[in-house]
C-alpha cells in the first residue's frame, strides 16, 4: 500500500513568506529581548488561549480569561471557565510534548477538553461536519477511517520533519488535521496548539507567539481557506494563509518587544548600570547611587519595572516588603 502524501504545492509565495518569517526571527536577537520580559510572554500566552477559545465561541473576555488563569473568581458559564483552565494547563505542557506522538496528541486533547467533552482524549465514534456558524463547510471522513488516517498523517509528519521546512510542514499538518476532524469536539483549539508545539520544538520563540490571535482576527479568511482547499483537494492555499498569519504575529511581537525594550531602557538602564553584578543591594543604597530622593519614583520607575521584567530579583522573595530586602541582577 502506497504511503499517504498530503497534496500541496510549494509556491513562490510560500518561499517569500518563509524568508520573511526567518528574517523576523533573526531580528528578535536570539529571543534575548523576549527572555527579559516574562510579563510579555505571559500576556502572549493568555492572548493565545483567549483567541483560540473565542474562535470556538467561548464568550469570556481577555480580562476574564486572565483572571481565571491568575486564580481569581470569575462569574460566568462554568463550561467556558473550565475550557480556560484546561487550555492553560495544556499550553503549559508544550515543552514536554512530543509533537510526533499520536499518544501525546490524545493526551493533550484529553487535557484540553477535560470535564467538557464525554470522549475527551479519544477519537470520535460518530459522523461529524465542520461548521462556520450555521453553514457546514466540510463533511468529515467516516469515524472508522479516523485512526488509520491519523496514523498515516503522523507517519508522514515524522518522515518529513527533516525534509520539509517546519513552517510549511506544520501548516500542512494543521489543514490535514482539520480535514480529518479526529475528535468529536475541540479539534480547532487542539490543532492550533499542536502547530505551536511543532514550531516551538523547532524554534523556542513560538511557545510565546500568539498566532491564534491573528487567526481570530482573520477568522472568516481562515474558514474560507479551509473550504477552498477542501474543494480543490490541496492544502496549498491554507498553507499560504497560515504563513501569512505567522508572519503577521511575528511582526506584532517585534513591535511589542521593541516598545517594551524602549520602556525598559528609558527607566531601568541606569538602575542596571549602578548595580554590581555580584553584590545584592538595598533600596536605600540603590537610591543613593542613582541620586534619587523620592522612594515612590524609585519604586514606580526603576524597581518595579525591573522586577516585573525579570531583570533583577529579590534575595528574599517570600517577604517582599522586608526592611532587610536586597536586590541583585538576574
Number of strands: 5
What fraction, in percent, of the residue positions are helical?
55-70%
* CATH fold call of the largest domain: Fic-like fold
CATH architecture of the largest domain: Orthogonal Bundle
- Counting structural domains, the number is 2
- CATH superfamily of the largest domain, please? Fido-like domain
> In percent, how much strand structure appears in the residues?
5-15%
For the termini, the CA-CA separation is 57 Å
Low-confidence stretches: none
The average pLDDT is 91
Largest sheet: 3 strands, antiparallel
Q: How do the helices and strands follow one another from N- to C-terminus?
A: HHHHHHEEHHHHHHHEHHEE
Q: Please work out how many helical segments DSSP would assign.
A: 15
Q: What shape does the CA trace take?
A: elongated
Name of the CATH class of the largest domain: Mainly Alpha
Strands across the major sheet, in which order? 3-5-4
Radius of gyration (CA) equals 23 Å
Structural class: mainly alpha
Structure write-up:
With 330 residues, the protein is mostly helical. The chain has 2 domains: 12-261, Orthogonal Bundle (Fic-like fold), CATH 1.10.3290.10; 268-329, Arc Repressor Mutant, subunit A (Orthogonal Bundle). It is built from 15 helices and 5 strands. The strands form 2 sheets. It has a 3-stranded antiparallel β-sheet. A two-stranded antiparallel ribbon has the order 1-2. The model has no long low-confidence stretch (mean pLDDT 91).
